[in-house]
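Researcher: Good morning. I'm working through a list of sequences from a screen, and I'd like to move beyond sequence-only analysis. For each chain I'm collecting a predicted structure so we can compare shapes side by side. This is the next one on the list. No need for commentary yet; just the structure.
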Amino acid sequence: MVELKTAQEVDAMAVTGAFIAALLDDLAGRARPGVNLLDLELRARDLIAERGAQSCYWDYAPSFGRGPFRNVICLSVNDAVLHGLPHDHTLADGDLLTMDIAVSIDGWVADSARSIIVGTPRTEDLRLIEATERALAAGIAAAVPGNRLGDISAAIGSVAADYGYPVNTDFGGHGLGRTMHEDPHVPNIGRAGRGLKLRPGLTLALEPWLAAGTVRIVYDPDGWTIRSADGSRTAHSEHTIAVTDGAPRVLTARS
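Model: Good morning. Structure tokens for this chain:
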């Protein structure tokens, strides 16, 4: 069931969103060559505890994955793109790091992901990240009353096609609010004019993610970390947004 939020409830989600944006800013500033992924995980735990927030990932146990997730952030490196399990890994110069996090404050959830380059960037990695960011912007721009869910998906998929990247449909965006995952599912490719009609109060996590060379994915032995099947680099950009009477509101916008 799709739950529309009141203006006050959207404001409450925006409080959570602002915290997540600041947390990702903090971690991005710390992600340098020689830094261990576990250091970033522990920093995220500290920031969440200081704020009195609750992790949506801790003890998360969906149908995929191996046992409950016992971390507060997903950290995915290079060919890993989703659900990266933080582990003892030291970042190297040129690594492409994706950080994905969802937390709840006073019962309201926001979710965001950001891909960054650690140290010296490669041109092809910058282009891949740019594609996800522009796809996200296009999806957000389509999230206006009167449009349909397919318009968002089509906008995201169109940008990916313009860049020449294939689109995987196994994982995509989703509704959220009181919990991390609510209806509806938002594929990263679709047909304009199809699907749920967008109405003010609809809150969505839009999250285009791309692999440079394939739509196929594989899982690490940890049961969580998802990688491109061909080992090509990956990137992921995500914002929590609200459909309003006018322009969409980005609740996890960077300051």
